[in-house]
Amino acid sequence: IADPQIITIIVLRLPFIINWIEDNISKSDAIDEETAKELIKRSKETITKEKEAVAIKLKELGVEESLISLKGMTQGMLVILGQKNIKKLSGIKVSGKSVTIGAATKHVEVSNSKDVKKAIPSLSSLAEGIGDPQVRNRGTIGGSIANNDPSADYPSACIALNATIHTNERKIEAAKFFKGMFETALKKGELIEAIEFQIPEKSSYQKHPNPASRYAIVGVYVAKHKGDVNVAVTGAKSCVYNDKEMSRALAGNFSSSSIDGMDLDSSEMNSDMHASADFRASLVVTQAKKAVDAC
After folding, report:
1. The pTM is what?
2. Is the Cβ–Cβ distance between 213 and 71 less than 8 Å?
3. 272 in helix, strand or coil?
4. Which residues, in sequence order, are bridge partners of residue 68?
C-alpha cells in the first residue's frame, strides 16, 4: 500500500472473475469436476481474505473506503480509493503560463472550474463531454491518464497542451508518457500527483463520439502555441499521438484550408464495428478542421 499521504490504492480481483471461473473451468474437458470445484472454492477464499485484509488496512490508515467501479474497467481490476485524505492530489491551480490539476480531481470539477474555463476553455469543454454524469462525477483526470485508454479524451489534451505529468518520483513530458495501448511510462509504485498544462494561444477539442459510451471514435485536440501547433489525435490508433503532418501545415498557415483534403495514411488506424480504418483517417481531418475553425 502506498504512503496514505499520497494515495491509497489497492488492486483486487473483481468478483466477476469468480463467475468466469465457474463458467469456464467447470465446463473445461481438461479439468475433472472435483478439481474444478476445489479451484472455485480456493479462489473464493482468496478473494474473501484479500477483501478482509484491505478493509483492516484502510481502517488502520483512517481512510474512508470508497468503491469506484466505472464502465470499461478491464477484467481483474478494482480500485478502492480513500478520497477523504488525499487533498494533496486534488484541486486546480492557475499561474500565468500553466494550469495544474491534481490527479484526484474529478472530471466534473474540471468542467465546472471558472479558472479552467478562463485559462483553457477547451480543456473544460473536453471534461464536460466525457462519458455520462456518473463517470464525470466519479472519474478522475489522473485515473484517465494512468489508464491510457486509446479512445480516452484527456491524453489528447496532455499531448496538445504540452503537459508535464508530475509523479511522486519525477516529472514526465506528455510526449514521453504515453507508450502504447493502456501503457504509460509509469514505473511500479509510481503514482501521478498532478498534471500541468501549458496555456495555449488558441485551442479546441472536437470529437466524433461513440453514441453509447461517449468515448472518442476519433477526437482531435488542436492547440496553437507560440512558435508551434500541436494536433493531438485520440481514438484513431492504438495510442494517442501528435499528427506531425497536420501540425506542420497549421504552423505555416493556421487555417482549416491548410489541411483541407489531406489524405492521411490509414494503415495503422483502428478498425472495428464503429468505424473502418479509412473512415477514421477521414474523421481525423474532419475533426481537425472543426477544431481549427472553433479556435
Report:
1. 0.74
2. yes
3. coil
4. 79
Residue 58 amino acid letter: L
Predicted confidence (pLDDT) per residue in 240-288, tens digit: 999 999 999 999 999 999 999 899 999 999 999 999 999 999 999 999 9
In the numeric block, which cell numbers belong to residue 217? Answer: 471514435
Name the residue type at position 114: K
CA 198, chain centre distance (Å): 18
User: Taking the alpha carbons of 12, 14, 15, 17 in that order, is the dihedral positive or negative?
Assistant: negative
Determine whether 177 is exposed, middle or buried from the number of CB atoms within 10 Å of its CB (0-12, 13-18, 19+).
buried
Which candidate, 8, 104, 11, 7, places its Cα nearest to that of 57?
8
| AA letter at 222 | V
Cell reading at 24: 469456464
**Matching residue, cell 492557475:** 94
Residues comprising the chain, all counted: 295
